[in-house]
């Protein structure tokens, strides 16, 4: 298929990026002792691009995300973010959002969101002021003083995502951010996140088990094989997409690419 949706040529996916131009993963391998988890992965993410990683459970998606962020070192190969290849340098450029929201139960929603700024040395009042200015835009107005235990799952994820954005890093690493939510809330959060990224573009790597979610939120989706993970297909999400989620995921072109991704997943598990 062409660039309007479907498989992408090797030329389009070659991870040869100039300094300062996003993320480049070249020939990366990883293992936990004798257990090989990742086998020679090449991947490129353009500035403000969104790439989704999908694959079987336990295939190494989260490990690859941690490698990109500098939380782990590869066994072989190289990873660069904005031309920087060392682990501390990559970590300094990434904001990592794990599957669990990890909100502090003794902090209010506002203080949880402001924590990213406090960790960077901002004074408490200034950090709370900057975070509060975004609460309405993130659908959290009126919940500033609310404890995490009193928030719905979707609202907790919004607070966690706001905290991630406030870290001010150019790269967002999202590891199954909506996995714990029910189907209806998850669909609502997907639409919300798509709008949030349009308003505040970042370079994003998204790990998810949900092919539809990956295609809806991403520009491109890399399909990983069973462990040791390798990329068995790379697909581009159809464009233009309908402005609403339901319209986007039911579009015939979208459905066709989703089915191709599912076939690649099945092939990668053999």
What does this structure look like?
With 270 residues, the protein is α/β, with parallel strands linked by helices. The protein has two domains: 6-93 and 170-268, Rossmann fold, CATH 3.40.50.300; 103-168. It is built from ten helices and ten strands. The strands form two sheets. A seven-stranded mixed β-sheet has the order 1-10-9-4-8-7-6, with helices on both faces. 41% of the residues are buried.
What's the helix and strand layout?
Blueprint (H helix, E strand, L loop, with lengths): L5 E2 L2 H4 L9 E10 L2 E11 L4 E5 L6 H9 L6 E6 L5 H6 L1 E4 L11 H11 L4 H9 L20 H14 L4 E5 L7 H17 L3 E5 L3 H7 L2 E5 L6 E6 L8 H5 L2 H17 L2
Parallel strand pairs: 4-8, 4-9, 6-7, 7-8
Antiparallel strand pairs: 1-10, 2-3, 2-5, 9-10
Helix pairs in contact: 4-5, 4-6, 6-7, 8-10
Low-confidence stretches: 7-21
Largest sheet: 7 strands, mixed
Rough outline: globular
CATH architecture verdict of the largest domain: 3-Layer(aba) Sandwich
Order of helix and strand elements from N to C terminus: EHEEEHEHEHHHEHEHEEHH
Strand order of the largest sheet: 1-10-9-4-8-7-6
Average pLDDT score: 88
C-alpha-based Rg, rounded = 18 Å
Distance between the termini: 24 Å
Total DSSP helices: 10
- DSSP strand content: 15-25%
Fourth-tier CATH superfamily name of the largest domain: P-loop containing nucleotide triphosphate hydrolases
Please give a handful of descriptors for the protein shown:
270 residues, alpha/beta, Rossmann fold, 2 domains, seven-stranded mixed beta sheet, three-stranded antiparallel beta sheet, 10 helices, globular
């Amino acid at each position: 298929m062409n660039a309007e949706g479907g498989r992408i040529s090797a030329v389009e996916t070659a991870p040869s990026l100039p300094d300062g131009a996003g993320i480049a993963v070249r020939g990366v391998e990883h293992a936990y002792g004798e257990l090989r988890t990742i086998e020679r992965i090449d991947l490129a993410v353009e500035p403000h691009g969104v790439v989704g990683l999908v694959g079987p459970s336990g295939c190494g998606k989260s490990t690859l995300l941690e490698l990109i962020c500098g939380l782990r070192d590869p066994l072989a190969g190289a990873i660069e973010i904005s031309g920087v290849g060392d682990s501390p340098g990559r970590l300094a450029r990434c904001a990592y959002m794990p599957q669990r929201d990890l909100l502090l139960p003794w902090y209010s929603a506002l203080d949880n969101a402001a924590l990213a700024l406090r960790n960077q040395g901002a004074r408490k009042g200034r950090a709370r002021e900057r975070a509060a200015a975004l609460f309405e835009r993130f659908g959290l107005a009126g919940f500033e003083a609310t404890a995490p235990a009193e928030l719905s799952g979707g609202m907790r994820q919004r607070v966690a995502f706001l905290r991630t954005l406030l870290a001010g890093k150019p790269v967002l690493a999202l590891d199954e951010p909506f996995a714990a939510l029910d189907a209806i809330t998850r669909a609502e959060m997907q639409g919300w996140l798509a709008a949030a990224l349009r308003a505040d573009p970042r370079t994003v790597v998204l790990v998810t088990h949900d092919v539809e979610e990956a295609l809806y939120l991403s520009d491109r989706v890399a399909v990983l094989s069973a462990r040791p993970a390798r990329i068995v297909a790379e697909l581009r999400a159809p464009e233009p997409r309908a402005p609403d989620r339901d319209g986007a995921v039911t579009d015939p072109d979208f459905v066709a690419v989703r089915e191709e991704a599912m076939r690649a997943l099945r092939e990668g598990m053999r």
